[in-house]
Amino acid sequence: MKKILSLLLALTVVLSLAACGGSSDDVQQPVSTDASQPDTQPDDPEIEPDNEQSPPDEEKAASISEQVLLDESGLKITANGLESGFMGAEVKLLIENNSDQNLTFQVRNVSANGYMVDTMFSPDVAAGKKANETITLLASDLNLCGIETIADIELSFHIFTTEEWEDYLNSDTVQIKTSAADGFSYEYDDSGELLYEGNGIRIITKGLASDASFLGSGLLLYIENNSDQPITVQSRDLSVNGFMVDGMLSEDVMPGKKANTELTLPDYELEENGITAVSDLEFSFHIFNANSWDDITDTDKISLTF
Description:
Immunoglobulin-like; about 50% strand
């Protein structure tokens, strides 16, 4: 079953990468915003996100020296390389399972250069065995964030028993610095329409893209978490052209990190309501602590017209 799920995940990622090759001409800017927070205008009204599907060339400018990331509870994980692959940037690992249990290794809360990114990584390592494995940072996310050179990566390991799925170890956050880290200039594009600012959180839209994902169009969002708690951002009460629609948004952003994501408007939802072009959106954000699930805020209604 897990192998089947892995294949389905890989297929989903391939479709996602294929969908990221759309033209930037398909990004529409909102012509009006109705929200309780003040608006900010982008320095350049022409938004041109770089969504090409080919992986960036970060390995040409950056490398990783051998670094022990985890050494406890009978486990040792060593990073020993950074390469470029078909799906994205690849962090090479040596996993040593010196415990008496068969274990599955995953990563959580992964960021590159301060941006949250999705990954592919879920190997099984039998008791007493070693494995050379790869954490893949998806090219679609790296390109969306404009990352051409990786200076640092942060992540934590989630490790559980392969058969019973019982937690074995959840590591602290570890940081991998590449050869490009010293003197690296971190730059973040926060241009666009400000939708929410409060509680140390900023959410900005960069426009409506007709090819935001393989599921359809979406509202491009930049989220900045300057608070001291991990957050999850979701949408509520979404309507498109006056019709209620089940949009897709659930983005985790760690303290001090940023995220480029989208509020997805699935094609099948629009088709069911006879919507061929998006002229207006109404919704609110529901923001809560990603660990405790305690509410942080529910924003006022936000209205956008295109």
